Amino acid sequence: MPGKIVDIDIASAGRNAVVLNWAYWLDPYDLADNVSNYSVHVSYSEHPEVGYSQPISVDLSDKEVKFEGLKHLSQLGFLYYWKVELYRGQELLETKLIWLKPKPDGIANVFREKYEIAMKYVLRKTARLYMQRITEGACPECVDIRTGDPIAEECESCLGSRKKGGYWDPVEIWINPDPEVFTDDNSLVSSDRTMRNFLLPFYPSPREKDIVYFEEEGVLYMINNLVPNVRSGGYIYIIASVIALPRDHVAYKLLEP
């Protein structure tokens, strides 16, 4: 039986660095197998549904790999998505997809799973999350690359995100637009509902200035602030303060075919 990775952990290692470490198992009865036959390839992405970086390859026995020079994608931290591949020689044995946040204990997992079941199968409300293309830099059409200052109010190239390439294709997520339902959180809603709180899943992780399209209302909301709900050391969901975008905002082009 070939070896396998049995556990992966991720931890910050300074302001702009991350360390991934793992434990592995080899069949003690397979005397022909040796840890030197194995390697681990690790790569990352800023979005859960796009391509990954060029992988870094290390020996399985190293038990860790460090990435430096990363950007903080959110006030909540790095929030990259990671791919860990185990090879024996040239043969790919397994692929694990993970994301950067310390693993919660079992109690936190139970809280999150129960809440997500309530959202998906009881409340049954969905939205589209448009995530900014953070790592590609500022939009050259509306931002002065030297100073970082905006040079145009509305930009059809980045749709107002100020980021090169604008937004990734949307990811469908569950949404709780009325946080008093299924939680103890009270929603702060302006009288005209242009400012309110949404509860969103922690994966895929929303970020400030990302856009949520609440299909039931046909309205685009921009995320202004994020506060994680934490229980037993684990993230259960995100409380997102959002602002409704006016109908003439350039971001509504996201909805065009």
Q: Mind explaining what this structure looks like?
A:
With about 260 residues, the protein is mainly β. Strands 9-8-11-12-13-10 form a six-stranded antiparallel β-sheet. It has a four-stranded antiparallel β-sheet with strand order 4-3-6-7, with no helix packed on it. The chain has two domains: about 5-100, Immunoglobulin-like; about 105-130 and about 165-255, no CATH class. The chain is built from one helix and 13 strands.
Topology at a glance:
Blueprint (H helix, E strand, L loop, with lengths): L3 E9 L4 E9 L12 E8 L10 E4 L4 E5 L12 E8 L2 E9 L6 H18 L2 E5 L40 E4 L20 E6 L10 E4 L4 E13 L2 E11 L13
Antiparallel strand pairs: 1-2, 2-5, 3-4, 3-6, 6-7, 8-9, 8-11, 10-13, 11-12, 12-13
Number of domains: 2
SSE ordering: EEEEEEEHEEEEEE
Secondary structure: number of strands: 13
Distance between the termini: 50 Å
What is shown here, in short?
The chain is mainly β. The chain has one helix at residues 106-123, and strands spanning 4-12, 17-25, 38-45, 56-59, 64-68, 81-88, 91-99, 126-130, 171-174, 195-200, 211-214, 219-231, 234-244.
